[in-house]
Amino acid sequence: MSFARGLWRVAAADVSAGNRPLLLRDGAAAFDAMIAVIDGAHHTLDFECYIFRGHDEVGQRFVRGLLDAAHRGVRVRLLVDWVGGRDTPGRVWKALRAGGVDVRIFSPPGFRAWLGLLPRDHRKLLVADGKVGLTGGIGIGEEWRLGTLGPKRTPWRDTAVQIHGPAAEAMERAFDAMWLRAAGQGPTRREQRRMVRAARNSWIDFSDAPPALVGIVEGEPARFRISRALEVQAAAARERLWIATAYFIPAFGVVESLKGAARDGVDVRVLVPGRNDHPWVNRYAASFYPALLRNGVRIWEWQGEMMHAKSTVMDGVITRIGSTDFNPLGAAINYELDAIIGDRTFGAQAEEMFLADLEQSREVTRKSSRAIRAPVGAPHDATDR
Asked: Which pLDDT tens digit goes with each residue over 76-105?
């Protein structure tokens, strides 16, 4: 089965060839790349965020960049989730709108299902002119540049990818869909379940298409697309499957697929935060450790302030970078977006970055995992970043 056909069947993602991906590590590098894309936009600029702290230094840098682009005559659209943008003062939104930026806030509270609190738009996406796009786990806030924990704080560890090429068009289409949803103009979730669309480019595979191959996976409520993609990768992996995830509360199928791959000789590694901005998540995550460790899955805990990355690399060939964590919110409730990249050069870079992260992490052993117990009945936090 071709790379494109497999990704379409498990995640409804169309694949394109001839893309040029650039791996971005941490907030400082990603912010510089994003500002460069904003400054280089000629016609259109679409920006979608979960966290947007428009009042801090990082946020103000982006506000100025968006306003400058609008002043140049670029059509600028900014879509921010209500939960992630609720700390931004109203004067920031007012200034952006007055400066020509079209701003929409996704799903403020209201008298509708779940009072509007679920699902959230947890995606991170920037696209310019339909030619270059960025996605990953990085939000627009000082924590990704400086950290949050007092005088000895360190920047949050995170990952993003910048893609030049036809995949940017798919990212632009993904933004358009969320832009309509935010205004209540797109199809309802019930209507979406009834929509039928044929696959595009399902023949594309490594043997007859120029690298890099990229599929843009749009996570939607009740679709489980990234979870299914991981399960398929676990089934297809021959040598290695390395995962970084910030909020690790995996579904039963994910756990079983990881255990099965490890028992079959695959080097399965999971990197999670040692300290979490939602501490109860780590307690829940630890409840999965004993079963995973018994079956040969190896687990590391990042020793810096916060490890917020959401990435997977399989056999040094297929890499996922995006916004989805392996927990109920990411897999089944929120809107998410991930890029799945088929390319050996990029995969080697992703593996090198993962190994560098392990050097700053502590491996969890079966003995140490027995000392941790998960709390009973802790609520799921809709403010997951």
From this structure: 999 999 999 999 999 999 999 999 999 999
Residue in 41, 49, 87, 88 with CA at minimum distance from that of residue 66: 41
CATH of domain 17-182: 3.30.870.10
The strand pairing partners of 216, in sequence order, are 339
CATH number for 213-369 (one of 3.30.1330.30, 3.30.465.10, 3.30.870.10, 1.10.10.10): it is: 3.30.870.10
Domain layout of the chain by residue ranges: 17-182, 213-369
- Average pLDDT value over all residues in the chain: 93
pLDDT tier, 189 (very low <50, low <70, confident <90, very high otherwise): low
CB 265 within 8 A of CB 238: no
- Same topology, domains 17-182 and 213-369? Answer is yes
Distance separating alpha carbons of residues 247 and 152, to the nearest angstrom:
23
- With beta carbons less than 8 A apart as the criterion, state whether 26 and 305 touch: no
- CA distances to 111, 135, 222 from 188, in Å: 16, 25, 13
What is d(CA 33, CA 26) in angstroms, rounded to the nearest whole number?
Answer: 11
Give tens-digit pLDDT for 327-339.
999 999 999 999 9
